[in-house]
Amino acid sequence: EEYGLTYESIEDIKNERWGGRHAHVNPHTKQRGKRHEVRWCAFRIAQLFDCVCWETQETRTYFGTDIDTLQAHSLTDMVCLAMEAEWAAYDRNGHGAYAHPKSIRFSFLRAMAFRICERLKAMVAARDASATKTAHAQGRALMIIPKRDEVKNQLEKYQDQTNLKLRREVKNKTTIKDRKAAKAGLAAGDRVSLNKQMTTETEKLRLSA
Q1: What is the rounded distance in angstroms from the CA atom of residue 90 to the CA atom of residue 14?
Q2: Which of 61, 112, 123, 144 is disulfide-compatible with 189, CB 3.0–4.6 A?
Q3: Residue 63 — φ and ψ, nearest 5°?
């Protein structure tokens, strides 16, 4: 069913299973204390699935309904693998004698993440517009805003129960030093498939609800 029309009332939203789902911040290598560059996409992924995301040095958490958090982590893992695959393909071609490997990787993946985030933002806007149009045409209640409000309410309860303190991450200004790598990264960001596919785990969650 189309997004925003799954629920008939706010009570249906409240009756979902809510919580935080945790995963390692580096799903590619599980390297301790090393946050993967996919973190640059986490905020937009969270928006796509009506979640809230936060990270520590070891753990990435998506908070929301069971199904939403599962899908958020699944997409994060997929994007992470895509970033590594695209980087490996680009890296094999060589970068010249004077290029610094870390600067090139940073420029490539930063630009790739930027393009992926642009696409995710556009997907959210297009989905919301489509759901609104359908709801008006069918004379049905649209639950986009009520659901997002409930995410905030449930997160406050979760913070009270766990004594969780969240703070906004200070964004440092970043400089792209290798424009060639950045251009390739933007193109790579266009090649990533971002279609929301229901995973087997998600289907199991739906059946057990």
Answers
A1: 46
A2: 112
A3: -110, 135
Tokens of 62: 């998506």
Dihedral sign from CA coordinates of 69, 84, 101, 112:
negative
Average pLDDT of the segment spanning 27-52: 84
Polymer length in residues for the chain: 209
Q: What is the pLDDT of residue 39?
A: 92
pLDDT at 170 over 80: no
Dig out the tokens for 26 from the structure.
Answer: 């580096």
Burial of 88 (0-12, 13-18, 19+ CB in 10 A): exposed
Q: Which pLDDT band holds residue 5 (cuts at 50, 70, 90)?
A: low
Nearest to 174 by CA among 188, 185, 159, 164: 185
**Are residues 37 and 25 in contact, defined by beta-carbon separation less than 8 angstroms?**
no
Q: What is the DSSP string of 61-110?
A: EEEEEHHHHHHHHHHHHHHHHHHHHHHHHHHTT---TT--HHHHHHHHHH
What is the distance between the alpha carbons of residues 19 and 148, in angstroms, rounded to a whole number?
14
How confident is the model at residue 87, as a pLDDT?
A: 93
CA distance 133 to 5: 11
Closest by CA to 109, choosing from 131, 140, 141, 86, is 86
Joined together, the tokens standing for residue 146 give: 């009520």
Q: Among 70, 33, 75, which residue's Cα sits nearest to residue 55?
A: 33
Q: What percent of the chain has pLDDT over 90?
A: 50
